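Posted in: Protein Modeling Q&A

I'm a second-year student putting together a small comparison for a lab meeting, and my supervisor asked me to include a predicted structure for Orotidine 5'-phosphate decarboxylase. I've never done this before, so apologies if this is the wrong subforum. The sequence is pasted below exactly as I got it from our records. If anyone can share the structure token output, I'd also love a short note on what stands out.
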Amino acid sequence: MQLTQDQAAGRIMVALDYPDAAAAEKLLRELAGIPCYMKVGMQLFYAAGPAFVAGLKERGYHVFLDLKMHDIPNTVKGGANSITKLGVDMFNVHAAGGASMMQAALEGVDAALSGGSGVVRPTVIAVTQLTSTSQAVLNDEIGIGGSIADAVIRYAKLAKLAGLDGVVASPQEVTAVKEACGSRFKTITPGIRPAGAEVGDQSRIMTPRQAIEQGTDFMVIGRPITAAANPRAALESIIEELVV
Ligand SMILES: O=C(O)c1cc(=O)[nH]c(=O)n1[C@@H]1O[C@H](COP(=O)(O)O)[C@@H](O)[C@H]1O
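Accepted answer (user: helix_wrangler)
Welcome! Here is the predicted structure, written out as tokens:
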């Protein structure tokens, strides 16, 4: 697959895992002009909230709001309704909440759109098995039998049945998810580590190049960029890895 630099940048979701808006703004200044997707997770959202998300949208970024909702259907419906009104491009729920919970998220989206707020329909995806979860943790700690891939595929099929647009999984499961749910069902893959990068708490990893070759739609990358001495150089080198 041959990507231009801008296409490659657009497939990268930078995880803005920072304690406050000032720290995240510093990174945004360093990455200015590179058309990446930006991911706001719970650390930054709980600190900087909707105003920070609005600021990203005003600057033209695509925004993935990663709050991983997992609650009773009625509560998730309300959460999805509020998130949709923020105008984000993508948000997620946990597939482990079940089909009715995922459908409730879509109902919350529909209700927000029918209110005439003028926002676009966000892509709604489900987290399958966290990329920090290893085979041993799944079987021995969480107590779910079978392989990680089996568990991911079960969740992916459930998400598709519920009407969602795709899943979060590791790049190692992209091929199996696409086979089970179709090529248009989106895969969003954290667990990305350039060769030699610190693995940290991730378990199921691949390099950016390997992930794109698996056919991932978007790759979520945090610390390999944000913890680098020169984040812009780190991101540019990942983009180069994707275009060759
Ligand atoms: O939903 C996510 O984005 C997510 C799901 C998952 O299974 N694993 C995972 O790492 N993430 C997020 O992806 C990002 C990965 O960050 P790094 O490990 O620093 O590259 C973090 O913001 C995580 O919250």
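A couple of things worth pointing out for your meeting: Residues 15, 17, 41, 66, 68, 92, 127, 130-131, 168, 190, 200, 202, 220-224 surround orotidine-5'-monophosphate (CB under 6 Å). The chain has a mean pLDDT of 97.
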